[in-house]
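## tool: complex_structure
## caller: assistant
## args:
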Amino acid sequence: MDKKLLTIDVSHGTTHDGPGMRTTVFVKGCSLRCLWCQNPESICPTKEVWWDKTLSIGCMSCAEDCPTGSLQCREEGIHIDRTVCKACGACAEACPSTAMSWQGQEYELEPLLKEVLRNKSYYDQFGGGVTCSGGEPLLQSEFVAEFFRRLQEEGVTTALDTCGCAPRKNLEAVLPYTNYVLYDMKIFDPEKHRLFTGQTNERILENLKFAAEYIRKADHPMEIWIRTPLIPGATALEENIRAIGGFIRENILDVTTRWEMCAFNGVCVSKYDKLERQWEYDGRGAMTQAEIAPLKAAALSQVPEEKLLVSGMIREN
Amino acid sequence: MSGVQLDFIPKFEQSERIKVLEARNQELGTNGMRQYGTYGDHRCWLNIGPFPKMEELPSVKNGYKMTAEQWGEDYEFMLDNMEPHIYPCETVVGEIYWEMICLRTCGPSGWTMAPNADEIRAKIEKANELGGGTSAYGHTCPDPEILLKKGFGKLLEEIRANIKKYTDLCNERRARYLRGLEHVCLGCIHYIERYADLAEKLAAEATDADEKARFEKIAACCRNVSVNAPKDFYEAVQLLQFAILFDRATGHGNGYGRMDLYMYPFYKAGIEDGTLTRESAREYIAEMYMKLRGQFFSFGGRLEDGSDATNEMSWVALEAYDLVGDYNNLGVMWHSDMDPDYYDYACDVLARHGECIPVLINWDIMHDSILRSGVPQSDAWKVVYSGCQWYCLPGLEWCGHDTSSINVVRPMLRALKRAAADDVADFETMYDYYEQELHVTMQAFQEAEAAIDRVRGEAQPEMFTSLISHGPIERGIDMTGPRGVDYQNTSLNICGIPNVGDSFLAIKKLVFDQKKYSLQEVVAACENDWADNEIMRQRFLNQPKYGNGLSEPDDMYVRVATSMQEVAEGYVNQRGGQPMRPSLYAFMTHLEGKDTFPATPDGRHNGEVLAHGINPQAGASKRGLIPMANSASSADMRRFQGGSIQVDIQPKFFDGKENRYAYIRDFSAGFFKNGGMQLNIHIMDLKKLEDAMDHPEKPEYRNLVVRVTGYCARFITMSRAYQEDFISRVNYSSMS
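## result:
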């Protein structure tokens, strides 16, 4: 088994990553490169540093301690030359105010279990549990499977939040210890899927069918929640929604309890700033009811109303 | 009726009569007549001006004597001069206009007039310097059931029988105390009789038939309860209200126990014989709430056999608050077998009113804590949340709640200085120094408390509270004196545990593990308030902090809290040799830091307030509500007499959530199952509070009530420093 899980965050008290109140473990490393990615720091499978100008006290301790000289002070703040940076973390060590910080924390199994099990009484009260999200948890499937197995032993339900783009055996390893499969379906057309996420979706759809078949025969309670981020111009198209809905109806509706369409939001832009990256969707505001309505109608043409949930911030007009 | 502005979603419709009373009450609350200001829980008197007969007050006319007997004479004289007033629409009557602590020349601190006052003062000053504090007010809890069963007449008989007994036995000291108590009892009886007289007079004059009936009802009730036990629910409410007024006339913030238990027999009888309805019972209790404000009643908990104590009276008692809202102090004592419908309702009331009523308390922890102190189960089950952050055994215990405090930052600073001077090489040695300094503080505190205790029973007795407690009449000793009541621990408010824990962890990491700084540098930086050393301060500030559910800082917090408790337990008091029992609570000690506490190694600046009880230092909690709650339940709370967290939630927290009460229920039950002790939950719009600070004149802020800590206050009447401290607390707008 992988000795350690590389994470970007362990978030306590989440209410959007499965039922009830949960702890969500966000792993680092992803198999897709979605243009709209909300967690850009989760993409790279190794540790990296970023710089938060709001925390900086301008002491330059980071640049002083950088062995490769990859930090420069520019007018807009610290610039990290990532072609030179070896991600050794000396700058984060040197920084007194956590403005320069490591993205990527390695957890061993026992400390991670200990941390998430502190919330056990809240899982029991709220009907919640633990979710692994990302990044792509299936890229660290051995650890995740063992983590889930131990959680279930402790009476905690587990949720896997996956994009589905991973080897079949990784999925097979985790499913036996999973209660909720939160499965992303972003774009139905394979070529467009590749255009926006870097990968086509055949493997994703095959894995989804496999998961559904597994659930039909599973000896423990399991269900699928399909999640579709509504991204203007990419996923938020009636035709796309209708096609995804059609797939759900034809292949997995019996084991799917919810299809959640999450309206786009732009709160992650500050993460791109910290990574000094330009975000494709910078400046795009929340979607309007008028934009959402036809998408909802398209979804409802395929699945029953009680299974559809539209979430996220939506403007009146 | 216009003029009544409800700031909650009502469940019950107010009758016209209640609307009139509510309007009067709101008017009194905001025009300064009802005196409850910042330290709201202590007061409910109406301000009609200074006491008119100061020269005739026995202690003024005859010269001050430091005796409980003269205290009783003064008290009786004060009550004798309170004119009765019966206001339109009210059926539950009574008001007080002065408090003993304002009338007596010695003020609340009776010891200042003691022959050895200089010695006491010197000991207090020494204790203060070392981090120990004492004050005068008590927050104990009498047992109103004694009065409801016996009536004042029977108590007077008992007092007189014991005066005779001790006189015959030549124990003049005890007889003299009881003569003081006789004055107190007579003052109460006469006060109620004057209400009966007035009501009879008004009834005779009344022309309206309904008015006449109302006055006759008041008259009959007051005539009866002036000496006898109440004969029905209404009379019981009226007598309870009188008792609380009499107790408050002393000038403190006591609790009044498990009202749902002791009122239930009256309620049940009334319902069964058809003389009472749930609606009328609710209105009587609501009338009492509107008058008293700031009383502490608690509901729920368990019975002696461990079963759920919740009854229909528990419902009525909460419904009465639900009916009128506004300023109050009520607690619901959760336990793992509580009637789920009742707990749902309690959370629903809290969610709709948003003003931290009821306070939610873990009864099982309180019960275990008092058992742990050595109290037998036959008494331990009577435990009640008695206000702020404490529990008490009603009428059985006087432990000086809120009179004593220890600020652990002071011993820490001394320990660091010594450790730096000695150049200690490891963390454990430094920690030993800290524990030694805790002993130094405790010894100084113990001596100061003992010096006060030697005169307390005569200098600042709690005579009305003693009158309705178990022991003082029979023993001829005030409950504040040795063995006046059975249980006499000393309750200690502990301030600064999170600051000390975070400071020690930062030192452990940066000084002893990483060796980035020396202890001498740390001490110097703190003494100079981190001057020219922001880099160093940032490093200390950014070490892992208590309040984030992280094991390192939480373990350190637990260690510091446990050290305090174990050291304290080794000290006994003068009042019966019983041990000191800390609660992890700061009433206002944490604000003291604003003026007097130097910077601390947790990165705190000189002048910043300290952590409030077990709440994390302002700004330290960064990972959300659940991790913060996990930190707050990490210590074994059974070691302590109390410890609460303030959860100040912004309304948007509930956006899109249909059942607000369910979130409060599940969060609180999760917290309690994790070993948490007390939750003060607000639902409060931060923007509204900020606006209210600048525009207190706006009508919508008149009734803005917030829970400062263990008690509530009207926001606009709080001092600016308190308002700022309140606003600087962590506010949660989402669960994560």
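## assistant note: Residues 406 and 494 of chain B are 5 Å apart (CA to CA). The first strand of chain B starts at residue 132 and ends at 134. Handing back to user.
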